[in-house]
Amino acid sequence: MSQQEIVHAYRHLFRQGLRAIQFSKPARFTLRDRIRLAFRKGSASDFDAERIKNTLEFLQYATKENGLEHKIVKNLLFVWWSQRDGGKSKPSQKNMPREELRMKTTAFDAFNHNIDMLNESMYICIPAMTVRDPV
């Protein structure tokens, strides 16, 4: 894909994602950050026009009806939001035990694996990455 096609894909995905979440305030910023991170970390060879088209179609279905697609998008954004903020409460101690630090950094690995499997089965491109910053 050319650079211009990648920019257009970013804009289309972001715009359709905003429509799917109905521009709700915490989800809008989480969506922006997640799509921005995916496009910054990915290379031009990673982007597939067919996957992007299927993802846009998935987001359009999430916009039209309050069905399975909408619930998937809503729950993805909720988990990403809680992942970014470190859960409901931040730890009060600065020096966490090694075991707790390992748990916080690997807690979302199974979740990301499920997103990868969803991407492969539906041939879409939902970003599945964890920012490894537990504190």
UniProtKB/TrEMBL annotation:
Top-level taxon in the UniProt lineage: Eukaryota
Identification of the protein by name: DUF1763-domain-containing protein
